Amino acid sequence: MEDISWGGTPSRMKSCGWGFFFILAQGVRDVMAMNRRPLVWFAFIFVLGSCAAAGLGLHGTLYAGGAAVLLAVAAVLGRQASKGLAIICLLGFCVAAGERLWADSRNVTELQELLEVAESEGPRTAYTVHVSGTIISTVEVDGDRAQFRLEAAAIQVADEKPLVMRGERLMVQLRLAAQPEQGIAAAWQRGDQVRVDGELSLPAKATNSGGFDYRRYLRSQGIHWLLKSKGAAALAVEAPAAEAFSAASLYGRVDAARAWLGARLDYLYPPEQAGYMKGLVLGIREDLDPEQFNQFARLGLTHILAISGLHVGVFMYALTGLLKILRQPRERILLFLLAAVPFYVLLTGASPSVLRAGLMAMLGLVAARMGKLKDGLHLIAAAAVVLLLFNPYLLNDVSFQLSFIVTLGLIIGVPPFRRAMPIWRRGSWVLDLVAVTVVAQLVSFPVTIYYFNQFNLLSLLANFVLVPFISMIVMPAGAGALVLSMLWPWGAKLIANLSVIANDGSFAIIGWLADQSIFRQVWGTPSMWWVAAWLLLIGSAFRRLGRGNARLVKDGHPAAQPEQGEETALLQTEETMLLRDRQSGIYGYGSSITEKRSRVYRPLIIHALIAMLLLVYAYIPDALDRTATVSFLDVGQGDAALIRTASGKHILVDGGGAISFRKPGEEWRDRSDPFEVGSKVLVPILKDRGVHRIDLLILSHMDTDHIKGLIAVVEEIPVKRIWWNGTLRSSEDSSRLMEAAIRADIPLYAPIAGERWSLDHETHLDVLWPAERMSDIPVIKDQNELSLVVAIQLYESRFLFTGDISVRTEGEIVRMTRERLMVPQEPIDMMKVAHHGSRHSTGNEWLAYWRPSGAVASVGATNTYGHPHPDVLGRLEAAGVVLWRTDTGGEARFQVSGKGISAFQK
After folding, report:
1. Does residue 795 register a pLDDT over 90?
2. Please, is 903 exposed, middle or buried when counting C-beta atoms within 10 Å of its C-beta (0-12, 13-18, 19+)?
3. Peptide linkage before 468 cis (omega within 30 of 0)
4. pLDDT per position as a tens digit, 391-438
5. Domains, in order of start, for the chain
6. What is the pLDDT of residues 351-364, one digit of tens each?
7. N or C, which end of the chain has less CB nearby within 10 Å?
8. pLDDT interval class at 592 (50, 70, 90)
9. Residue 472 DSSP one-character state
């Protein structure tokens, strides 16, 4: 799956474009009475139109348009804007909204008939096709998979007549058959005209609430189908990119140049650092070590690896310094930079963040050459309008949102924040850095927790110390070594070796800080109103801070003259206030200054209190909710169930996991960042739902499809205690999970039948199996019949978790339960179908004893075992049991209260 993030990999496809609108609203609010900034007004209304069309649809856009008209009328009547400006802004709203609605109406597949059949028949539906078209993206070769985007010119379904396409885009995923095919796939490039044979299928939808929606993500890229092929022989290059000139072939040449430069960095740096330096200097992140990336992500440092304004600024600063050394005049320097920035944007991948930074830089250079450069607010407003005109779907891009929101926050917030800080005659750059870091953290915080559901309390420190070091020392050294390697390889190697030492130091610091789990926080996904409230509150605080500073300068410094700079006035104000405080005491002039300071900063204290209330609500939004929930998650062919008790505690039963059938000698098939259900599905869902701690983790047994996903859970989320069946299995997954639990110092307990535990007043657990505790911890291969079987009571509703037991063990449990009267002989409300619905489970005796009202079968949509078996389905139907299946309906969720159970399915 493609990387789509700016600061980590978001766990789900969401839209936070309104956050961009709210922070821009603060910029407009700051210049409300200034007709000399029409561009900011226009951008504000333009973004409003795009947001309305993206999030509200046609009818909602009409209502938003009405609000925009009222806003414009109010501005005109209040003499905040001229009639002409109001009309132009409203036209901007119509253009932005119309463009987005038009783009949505055209963002449909040309294969409508196939789409309707595929959606009705389910995920197993695939069509054998022959496709000819042009590769329009880089070809990513990772392990046994090659992936790229293809613009189809013609598609032939089976033996039917080929259909001529007008730009249908496909995501091609080709599984390589042998290791030498990696080299063949690496030779394919953007712009090649190819013919591909394979199977056409729909991308996967989100099957868990809050899960990543791959189909929605691809749709935002204009892609509606996956084309899956096997073996390099399934693709034939009909015309290489070098033989034709097109936009794709031009990008292909840029890709080749980037690959060549990346190879130079491979030569200069050791393997463990080459991928990092390629990401830092060229924006090539495919070779970055996933564990290293995770460490950066935990500290909120991944923006260093996303080419953005910081990188563009360093590039322009270095180039300007070089041109000054060559004694070039100012006009020539501006022209040279204007020509160099687009080249740099292309060379570093042209991501949304670097497009924003590059466009702002170019607009600033043009304005500077014309002598009309005012401030960054005009530049970012113009950049937003241009980029959204170019591609309205950028509004939904995480990188675009974070880049613009943080930059806007810095433009609006840093000046007043910096003026509120002490005046240092020396070392003022330290305070400048503090102001930038704090403001960036405050502004990016709501978007960060919205998409990534985590925040590290050490992030501020890490950004303050490491960002300047990496951006001002390591990155220029890497870029300098890369350029010098073409002229003087020995000198380039010397610089690279010095930066290797610097990298070792920064990696050690990052690794140590990232491992301090006590500072890692999980934040559930906040609502859009909360994101808006936070951004508006921060913007209001910045505005109040700016007004307060101006009032102190005006009232507290009688010597301040209009021609003096504000910084000088502030410095003299501080000195004057200190002197008068000493001379007059608290009853003299110094007392009036203190009173004025109090009037200025009292509103800021109120802002801080409101911010604390917002933080508390976002961290524990369901603190007063006494509804319990049981969620049977879709983790493919495996089990995972998340339980929230009435008091807000969490129980996790199993964690899924894919079984590997890799043979010796096939290690080349392993991908650098393989799909793993724990890190890619389970942990993101837990974070999305604000699970700060798992109070009880139940391992039914030690088979891979039940425990592999829990390795990531134990490493990422605190676990209070673990229940397991008291045995081990001779497998890598079993060993890794137990080692992770021991490292985290988690108590392990093996309960036996007859034990009853209470987690709170409304949550009780009855253990039904195993029958007895082992004298030691044996290693047992066949784990199914040793599964922990637990009945969990929430209020008056009961859920039965059965692991992978068979009919034989079911009978023993029934007989033992009758003899010992371990649980009341009352019907079970919901039962997990044992062993995913295999033929030899869920027998008639079992169903007759428990009399379940409903059952859940946790199975994979494309499993090859035939689960759930028709015999099991027949027995459930005969017993009158309502069945929920994760393969056809996704996550099955049940809300429990004193009134009973309510069922939902994704």
Report:
1. yes
2. middle
3. no
4. 999 998 888 898 889 989 999 999 999 888 888 888 788 899 999 999
5. 31-106 (no CATH), 112-252 (2.40.50.140), 530-619 (no CATH), 628-660+676-899 (3.60.15.10)
6. 888 888 888 888 88
7. N
8. low
9. I
